[in-house]
Write a structure and sequence with these properties.
Helices cover 27% and strands 36% of the residues. By secondary structure, it is α+β, with helices and mostly antiparallel strands.
Length: 241
């Protein structure tokens, strides 16, 4: 009769833990592969010859006037460690990511699994993150990140030419124009609070966070410039130190 050796309980637990970890890693890899496959194959094709405005129209409703390089940063709430470089652009008016396919074709990929991505042109990087708003999830441009995240939303306005010649006086513009208006939010724990680029509005968004209020006060004591976008970025970074 064969005798079977019983493994110590500790060894059994270690072995089971290792198998569980391996199974989890495999499942996570499969989930990521499925998410990436969904992102890259959900294609509604359309033809594009560029993103510049037609005729004498000034500006564009897109992030760039042409293609730029884009990388995925997070999918299914996990970092994308080795993202493909995608030729891409972003429709600010529709809040829609656009990927270049080929033969002047483009498509809007499935982005329900995506939490973050970034573009790079030269030395300039622009980050986008998904933010849950009251009406829908939107990709907003991330300006500063940490415990507090500063983001901005772009609204595209199409302004028609309104030139008038009244003899001695000429008014208006001879060209149509795309203009962008920005709304800023300070996000903490996934909750966006709308702010204006004013000191009081920014401070109000901090609520009763005594540590953040102290950091903001310290920053403002030595800051003498206009409270613009750059200042909002600096003060947010100061809060996150």
């Amino acid at each position: 009769m064969k005798k079977f050796m019983l493994l110590p309980v500790a060894v059994v637990l270690v072995v089971n833990t290792l198998f569980a970890q391996q199974a989890t890693e495999v499942n996570q890899k499969i989930q990521m592969e499925n998410a990436l496959e969904s992102f890259s194959t959900s294609r509604s094709y359309f033809i594009t010859n560029g993103f510049g405005a037609p005729g004498n129209t000034v500006g564009t409703p897109y992030l760039y006037a042409g293609w730029s390089n884009m990388w995925l940063d997070s999918m299914d709430n996990k970092p994308v460690k080795h993202s493909v470089t995608y030729p891409a652009n972003f429709d600010l008016d529709k809040n829609m990511l656009i990927i270049k396919s080929g033969d002047n074709k483009a498509f809007a990929p499935e982005t329900q699994h995506v939490q973050a991505f970034h573009f790079q042109q030269g030395d300039t990087i622009q980050y986008f993150v998904r933010v849950k708003m009251e009406d829908a999830n939107k990709f907003l441009q991330r300006l500063a990140a940490g415990k507090y995240t500063l983001v901005k939303d772009a609204k595209v306005l199409f302004m028609r030419a309104n030139y008038e010649d009244k003899g001695m006086v000429q008014t208006g513009k001879k060209y149509d124009e795309y203009k962008k208006e920005y709304t800023y939010y300070l996000v903490k724990d996934g909750v966006p609070v709308k702010i204006s680029l004013k000191k009081k509005s920014f401070i109000s968004a901090l609520g009763n966070d005594s540590k953040a209020l102290a950091a903001a006060k310290k920053f403002l004591e030595t800051y003498n410039g206009a409270f613009d976008e750059a200042a909002a970025i600096e003060i947010t970074e100061a809060l996150n130190q």
